[in-house]
């Protein structure tokens, strides 16, 4: 172990060797330190107030130096002091780093294990789809309206231009309420077969311009199976104003379908029949699965049955007869209406092949939508 | 209905192959759903809209083709031997050879045309006819019956052939059925007739259910020698009522109830005769009987160019308009004829004022509607015809201008807030059918249920009066399939009968069973408890603004006593929640297995009441700059002392700088005497203005101890 020599010659040149010896001893001892106890030993050996090497060089070199040399020796001693302090600090850092490295290594986690999750609830695919559709029309300036699910014959049929005993009523297999026979036909209650009654209710309450989007539950007398449900969901829309034309119907729905399904989607309109619109149009969109080509690779696209088109909406210009029921001037106002089945769209979007899955609350189904 | 393109080509020259034709028809509103077979055997499956009864036959579709391709439509020209027609189209005052038709109900039957063929030979139809019928999915029967079917497919008018010798009294009477009258129809079914049923009768008895089905006893058989051909027009509403009453839907009733062609009865009659003579021989009586009981005028409509543009958004050339309508059989005069009477909208209560305006305005076209288009009554109906033949694709897409704001549903933000919270709390959103059984309605609610007249099943015979049965069904569905951890919520409606009215109310229901925290490799599962649910309820209710909220144990009997509560916000019950009564769970077999009977938790939130409160208004509170001081109190209380009383007692002290009072530990048993419990309470004092002094805190602590002692509590230590 290094010991501080006494000096015989205090000339600057003669100092070089003892200083170099001391420095090399410092480096050697520093590098030998491996842990906390050996570091403490090292520190005390060099820096202990009592008999540490710094104290010794102070006593043996500086104090013993003759007056004319004191200045030069003092400078050298101060340099050495700074060097020792730095070496002790560096050594401490070196060994504490190594210690934490060792600790990090010994208590390392298997980061490939699964995390602790707080599962989020999943949005129901129908509600989600319905909100998406409503959102598109809200962005186009449509307000949101709702109406009762238990409706009168008047609102569900008569005011929508379905006369009593008319074959058009056969298009909608109706669920009727019991105990209605004593009432006048138009007051009899039923479960609404479509959201269209809310068109009438809205127009009764409000003068044009009207722009509403109407989400809601509707009912038909269909036994539940993979493609039928006695309860399902629709989104309906209505725009009435001066100068609304069939071209506006086409443009609005084309725009809405592009917003919903992407800007590359094309629309196609073909004549149809609804008692409350005239002219009426069925709206198809180019198949979002095969891009409208009808084939996915060499396979027939099952979503559009290789036709390239998917039927999505019913629509049409509001039949002027409706304006008679709500007190609008049919010579002044015109408008369009549209409606779509949300469940069917959700089923198509998510590839659900059995509508019953939507309604039985099976968590294995629902959690897939989170 | 099936349509053969080859047959269409017999009536009109179609410049398109069968695929292009199918597309073109579909784009004109005659929807070809599928195409079967090839070549001459190609058949379209066509879905006709209910307004287009005129098109439900080959000639009708050919007429649309004529309009689509602007080609001539060949006339239907039955070939019958004697062209010597009677002068009058009335059944009276004609030679005795003529068969007598007596229409006693002109409302039900506007026209009845008949012809008689004698000495026919009943046999199978020739191949051409039989094959064509079979191609279209219709069974060939014999040459006479097939003549009627063939005519139906060809020109769409339903006709019927009677065995003349089986008609008593040599006449046909069209009348309503008499009380108690019976009729066996062609399908062999016996019907007891209703006095509203329109029947075809002979001198004695009904022989056919008019417009629906012929009678069994007068049908064509192998022994038939002489045939009476009926080609009539019946009132749509009357046929519809009868068809529905007897649950019969036939090709004939389908057409009559949608409105058949009043003008075609002689042609259809002659066409059947033509076919019978060709296939069964015999001699045609020279006289056609055409009883016309009631004239039905077809309207003459005015069509304004301005209206075409106003509805369709684009000008269509006059020549195009006239061409389309003429090809469809409308008689079009450009300009307004003096004879033309503007026909107003058939809409009820259509407002006056427009009449005068329409009359003054220059009519651009005057259009006479043909007898086969009962669906066309108004100008808008003509505009639709123009648009569909012109082609929807030819109209440009435009967006209408609009000035106005978007108005949300009144409760949209509240709905969205609750939904987001529930999803964040890990509940899956569920949707269930809104029907329940009578028994469930009684079990879970005191409301009078809304009853369904034609339910899907007994289990779905009323509208739900509570969300609980639907939720329990969903929980049961999961448990039955071994899904142990279930957290669901459903936002929906309940329905109540209120005398003549019904009421629909918004409700939110939560159902949960299994783990509150799912197990992982890092920690075991923790089962859901009452307080897990209560915490979620507190979170949900905490989104709203209120003055007072308390919880008590007042819950309906489907909850387990002692593990359920209700929440009362500003005096109104807004939620009930807790563990489902084990009895109810057992009745509904809500279990994973016989051994594994999990606790089930439910919550019902009354949205109507909750939504009377605004969403909580958020105001920033300055974060205290001065240190908080905690003091713990360990007390022994009698078990009858609810935490709420402790809270209230301390709140009554009105210590302004008491920042929080939290129960930290609760302990029963062990050293604690029976009927007592120990609770560690932590009070946190903090001032927003200064550092609190020890003597102040000591004073408040003494006050707290005193007030808790006044509840019978005993201080254990401090």
Summarize this structure briefly.
With 370 residues, chain A is α+β, with helices and mostly antiparallel strands. Chain A has helices spanning 12-32, 36-47, 53-63, 67-106, 125-139, 153-156, 197-205, 246-261, 320-326, 342-350, 363-366, and strands at 143-144, 150-152, 175-176, 189-191, 210-219, 231-241, 267-274, 277-286, 295-296, 299-300, 309-318, 334-341. Helix content of chain A is 40%, strand content 19%.
Descriptive notes:
The complex is a heterodimer of chains A (about 375) and B (about 725). The mean pLDDT of chain A is about 90. Chain A has about 375 residues and is α+β, with helices and mostly antiparallel strands. Chain A is rod-shaped, with a radius of gyration of 44 Å. Chain A contains eleven helices and twelve strands. Chain B folds into five domains: about 70 residues, Phenylalanyl-tRNA Synthetase, Chain B, domain 1 (2-Layer Sandwich), CATH 3.30.56; about 190 residues, Phenylalanyl-tRNA Synthetase, Chain B, domain 3 (3-Layer(bba) Sandwich), CATH 3.50.40.10; about 80 residues, Phenylalanyl-tRNA Synthetase, Chain B, domain 1, CATH 3.30.56.10; about 200 residues, Bira Bifunctional Protein, Domain 2 (BirA Bifunctional Protein, domain 2, 2-Layer Sandwich), CATH 3.30.930; about 90 residues, Ferrodoxin-fold anticodon-binding domain (Alpha-Beta Plaits, 2-Layer Sandwich), CATH 3.30.70.380. In chain B, the strands form nine sheets. Chain B has a seven-stranded mixed β-sheet, sandwiched between helices. About 5% of the residues of chain B have low confidence. Chains A and B meet through helix 5, strand 1, strand 3, strand 6 and helix 8 of A and helix 6, helix 9, helix 11, helix 12 and helix 13 of B.
């Amino acid at each position: 172990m290094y010991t501080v020599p006494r000096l015989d010659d205090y000339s600057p040149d003669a100092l070089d060797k003892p200083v170099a010896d001391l420095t090399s001893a410092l480096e050697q001892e520093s590098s030998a330190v491996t842990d906390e106890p050996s570091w403490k030993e090292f520190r005390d050996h060099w820096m202990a107030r009592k008999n540490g090497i710094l104290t010794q060089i102070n006593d043996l070199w500086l104090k013993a130096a003759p007056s004319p040399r004191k200045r030069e020796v003092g400078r050298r001693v101060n340099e050495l002091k700074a060097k020792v302090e730095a070496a002790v600090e560096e050594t401490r850092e070196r060994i504490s780093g190594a210690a934490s490295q060792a600790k990090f290594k010994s208590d390392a986690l298997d980061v490939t294990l699964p995390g602790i999750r707080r599962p989020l609830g999943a949005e129901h695919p129908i509600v989600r789809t319905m909100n998406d559709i409503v959102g598109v029309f809200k962005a186009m300036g449509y307000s949101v309206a709702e109406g009762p699910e238990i409706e009168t014959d008047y609102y569900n049929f008569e005011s929508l231009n379905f006369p009593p005993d008319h074959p058009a009523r056969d298009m909608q297999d109706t669920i009727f309420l019991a105990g209605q026979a004593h009432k006048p036909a138009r007051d009899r209650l039923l479960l609404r077969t479509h959201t269209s009654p809310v068109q009438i209710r809205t127009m009764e309450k409000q003068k044009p311009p009207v722009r509403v989007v109407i989400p809601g539950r509707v009912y038909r007398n269909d036994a539940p199976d993979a493609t039928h449900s006695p309860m399902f969901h629709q989104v309906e829309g209505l725009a009435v104003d001066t100068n609304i034309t069939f071209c506006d119907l086409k443009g609005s729905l084309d725009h809405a379908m592009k917003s919903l399904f992407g800007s590359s989607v094309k629309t196609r309109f073909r004549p149809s029949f609804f008692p409350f619109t005239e002219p009426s149009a069925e709206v198809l969109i180019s198949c979002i699965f095969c891009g409208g080509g009808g084939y996915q690779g060499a396979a027939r696209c099952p979503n559009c049955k290789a036709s390239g088109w998917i039927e999505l909406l019913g629509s049409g210009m509001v039949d002027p007869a409706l304006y008679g029921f709500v007190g609008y001037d049919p010579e002044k106002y015109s408008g369009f209406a549209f409606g779509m089945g949300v469940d069917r769209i959700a089923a198509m979007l998510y590839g659900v092949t059995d509508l019953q899955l939507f309604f039985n609350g099976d968590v294995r189904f629902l959690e897939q939508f989170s | 209905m099936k349509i053969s393109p080859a047959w269409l080509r017999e009536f009109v020259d179609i410049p398109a192959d069968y695929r292009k034709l199918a597309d073109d028809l579909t784009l004109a509103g005659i929807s070809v759903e599928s195409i079967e077979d090839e070549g001459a055997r190609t058949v379209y499956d066509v879905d006709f809209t209910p307004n287009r009864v005129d098109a439900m036959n080959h000639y009708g579709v050919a007429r649309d083709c004529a309009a689509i391709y602007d080609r001539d439509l060949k006339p239907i020209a039955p070939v019958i031997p004697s062209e010597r027609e009677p002068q009058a189209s009335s059944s009276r005052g004609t030679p005795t050879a003529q068969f007598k038709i007596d229409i006693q109900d002109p409302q039900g039957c506007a026209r009845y045309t008949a012809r008689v063929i004698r000495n026919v030979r009943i046999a199978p139809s020739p191949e051409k006819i039989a094959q064509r019928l079979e191609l279209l999915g219709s069974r060939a029967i014999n040459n006479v019956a097939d003549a009627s079917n063939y005519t139906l497919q060809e020109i769409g008018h339903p006709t019927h052939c009677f065995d003349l010798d089986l008609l008593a009294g040599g006449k046909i009477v069209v009348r309503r059925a008499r009380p108690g009258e019976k009729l066996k129809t062609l399908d062999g079914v016996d019907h007891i007739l209703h006095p509203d049923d329109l029947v075809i009768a002979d001198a004695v008895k009904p022989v056919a259910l008019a417009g629906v089905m012929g009678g069994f006893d007068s049908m064509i058989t192998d022994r038939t020698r002489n045939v009476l051909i009926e080609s009539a027009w019946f009132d749509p509403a009357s046929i519809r009522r009868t068809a529905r009453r007897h649950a019969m839907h036939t090709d004939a009733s389908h057409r009559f109830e949608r409105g058949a062609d009043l003008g075609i009865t002689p042609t259809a009659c002659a066409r059947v005769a033509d076919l019978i003579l060709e296939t069964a021989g015999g001699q045609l009586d020279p006289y056609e009987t055409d009883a016309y009981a009631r004239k039905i005028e077809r309207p003459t409509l005015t069509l304004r160019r301005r209206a075409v543009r106003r509805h369709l958004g684009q000008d269509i050339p006059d020549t195009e308009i006239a061409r389309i309508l003429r090809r469809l059989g409308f008689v079009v005069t450009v300009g307004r004829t003096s004879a033309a009477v503007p026909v107003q909208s058939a809409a009820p209560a259509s407002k006056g004022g427009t009449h005068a305006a329409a009359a003054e305005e220059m009519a651009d076209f005057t259009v006479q509607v043909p007898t086969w288009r009962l669906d066309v009554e108004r100008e808008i109906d003509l505009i639709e015809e123009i648009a569909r033949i012109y082609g929807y694709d030819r109209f440009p897409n435009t967006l209408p201008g609009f000035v106005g704001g978007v108005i949300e549903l009144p409760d949209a933000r509240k709905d969205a807030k609750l939904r987001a919270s529930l999803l964040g709390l890990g509940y899956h959103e569920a949707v269930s059918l809104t029907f329940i059984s009578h028994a469930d309605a009684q079990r879970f609610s005191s409301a009078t249920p809304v009853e369904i007249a034609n339910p899907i099943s007994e289990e779905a015979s009323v509208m739900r009066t509570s969300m609980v049965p639907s939720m329990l069904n969903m929980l049961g569905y999961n448990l039955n399939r071994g899904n142990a951890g279930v957290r669901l919520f459903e936002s929906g409606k309940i329905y109540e009968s209120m005398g003549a009215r019904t009421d629909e109310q918004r409700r939110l229901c939560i159902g949960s069973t299994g783990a509150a925290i799912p197990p992982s490799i890092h920690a075991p599962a923790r089962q859901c408890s009452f307080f897990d649910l209560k915490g979620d309820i507190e979170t949900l209710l905490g989104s709203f603004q209120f003055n007072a909220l308390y919880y008590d144990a007042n819950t309906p009997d489907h909850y387990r006593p002692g593990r359920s509560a209700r929440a009362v916000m500003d005096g109104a019950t807004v939620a009930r929640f807790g563990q489902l009564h084990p009895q109810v769970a057992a009745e509904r077999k809500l279990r994973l297995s016989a051994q594994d009977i999990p606790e089930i938790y439910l919550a019902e939130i009354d949205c109507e009441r909750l939504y009377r409160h605004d969403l909580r208004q958020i105001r920033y509170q300055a974060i205290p700059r001065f240190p908080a001081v905690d003091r713990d109190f360990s007390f022994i209380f009698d078990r009858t002392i609810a935490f709420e009383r402790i809270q209230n007692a301390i709140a009554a002290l009105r210590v302004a700088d008491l920042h929080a009072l939290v129960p930290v530990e609760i302990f029963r048993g062990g050293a604690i005497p029976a009927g007592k419990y120990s609770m560690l309470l932590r009070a946190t004092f903090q001032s927003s203005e200064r550092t609190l002094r020890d003597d102040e805190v000591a004073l408040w602590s003494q006050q707290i101890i005193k007030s808790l002692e006044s509840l019978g509590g005993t201080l254990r230590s401090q």
